[in-house]
Amino acid sequence: MFWDTFGIVSFLYHDNPVYKFCESLFVGISAGYWFVSLYYQNLLPKLFDNLGITKMLGLSNNDGAFQHVFSGQWDDRIWYVLAGILAIMMLLRLVSKVGWISRWPLAVVVGSTAGLYMITYFQSNFLSQLQNTVIPLIAIGRIRALPSVGLTADLFFAAYLGNLVLIIGTLTGLVYFYFSKEHKGALGGAAKIGIYFLMITFGASFGYTVMSRMSLLIGRLYFLFGDWMGIVR
Amino acid sequence: MSNGSVGQKLFQALLRIDRRIIFLVIFLALSIPIFLRLKIDITVTQEVRLFYNTVEALSSGSRVLLSFDYDPGSEPELQPMAETGFRHLIKNHIKFIIMGLWPQGPMQANKALANINQIHEGFLVDKGDTLYFGRDLIVVGPDTIRYGVDFINLGFQAGNELVIQRMGSSIRAAFANDARYGRSIDQFQIMNGLNKLSDFDFVINWSAGYPGTVEWVQFAVDRFHVPCGAGNTAVQAPQVYPYLDTGQLSGLMGGMKGGAEYEQLTGMRAKATMAMVSQTAAHIFVVLFIVIGNLAYFMTRGKMKEGRA
What we know:
The complex is a heterodimer of chains A (233) and B (309).
Chain A: H1 2-9, H2 17-51, H3 53-56, H4 65-70, H5 80-91, H6 103-133, H7 140-149, H8 153-176, H9 185-228
Chain B: H1 3-15, H2 19-36, H3 46-57, E1 63-69, H4 75-91, E2 95-100, H5 105-116, E3 124-127, E4 130-133, E5 137-140, E6 143-146, E7 151-156, H6 161-169, H7 171-174, E8 202-207, H8 213-221, E9 228-232, H9 237-245, E10 252-254, H10 255-266, H11 271-308
Parallel strand pairs in B: 1-2, 1-8, 2-7, 8-9, 9-10
Antiparallel strand pairs in B: 3-4, 5-6
Helix pairs in contact in B: 1-11, 2-11, 4-5, 4-10, 6-8, 10-11
């Protein structure tokens, strides 16, 4: 593991054969891992076991849908046959002459995902967020609570300015994305404020990303100095 | 040579600085504090306090669902939270059910449990009429928890958010067997009376992306009305902050800093707290580089335009 870490980090100096080797090793192992993982965690238990294909091949003692249905007993798992057919249709894209068939299972995936998310996003990301923007300009409840919880900078901001910033940020941000009228005059001014809010948001996001990458590097350093060298506990 | 031209040359040299020097400085900023073992005060934010208070408010014997939705790539950020989370739940005598929407998630849970466990694998404990293997027992301080009674690992289930949707109506439809022994989950005492998602008292999600906290909020919280708290990688945290303001999330920890705050609140200072000095030092240098870079850019901008003309 040390050599893998060292090899990958060596790219920071410049591109080199050790880095290339470690990169290829990582890609190869990942591909192998995912193949095995998806087979044993998806294909085998979900499709082959449920349908009873493993039983038919003598690889399992448990009956599947085929065994039950053939013995005259209904088994809901027989519907996995449809999933199996769709999976085979998807694989047909590897055959150039009948590759178009793979569009059908893809259409099923796209359609069902769109249907699932239409309501979900509307409820969780639109309505709930909208509801939370309809708030008083100043959080009276928070101001009243300040003496009991103690006055800190973030609580002061949340009480006196938090709601105001939220409302202005939401409205001006929406104005920035309103393209049916030229951004001039009051509309242009609001859009400009909206840009500033967006910039601050991107900045915060970038800050978090930097923090995340530093954390990962710290984790590696603890591995190198601790687990590998044993000089840090 | 005038002072102005010396300043210009200095700024131009700063703009041309080899990026490898910056890498070296960051490496040193992160490494040196590890050896110096310095300590730093950590301010606890409202969102982490909310998470802590929510767990504290759970009564002894409550059952919490823990979804491990990350892999080893995010371990430095999320593993400290997971370990502290386990310690916190065990200390408060809260039972937990582990699962994962990421294939490696439940393995990360096992690793966290192994790290906090104070007994070795294979150790046999006589509990009157029953012998337990060490890996079925977790001993943390004065508390001992037993597999199947106080905790269970249901493992990974493919299907992303559809797994949550399915658990909303039937947990057994999504997880028929446990991950450790492959036995029906009905054989374990902890699963008695747990039929659907809303039977859980709380859901905790450790998340590094998709599927993760967004999906738990959309499906578990908004559809099945189960309270949910989350620990996220710092990259993902800004994406889920809006859910905190609306009350859709009952607490949030963002990145290693969030983990350190949680350690501070629980009084279990560990990995995340140790790393905060390195993190702070690196951030100071990053801010310095940004300030110097911008200063040098604006100070030499006129000269650069002249050069182009």
